[in-house]
Design goal:
There is one protein chain. It contains 2 helices and no strands. It has 51 residues and is mainly alpha-helical.
Length: 51
């Protein structure tokens, strides 16, 4: 289970970094989309585990 959380952490950290970069470019729609997709992806990964 620790590996799952580590993978989720890195996934979310990288997507947040992407969203911040988009925000620095004042592309708030893209930033919002990145964060929504990251949240959905992390939730899906979590729900698809046997833990």
């Amino acid at each position: 289970m620790d590996e799952l959380y580590q993978n989720l952490y890195f996934h979310l950290f990288n997507r947040i970094t992407d969203a911040l970069a988009a925000m620095e470019q004042q592309d708030f729609g893209t930033a919002r989309d990145i964060l929504i997709r990251a949240q959905q992806s992390a939730e899906e990964q979590y729900l698809n585990t046997d833990g």
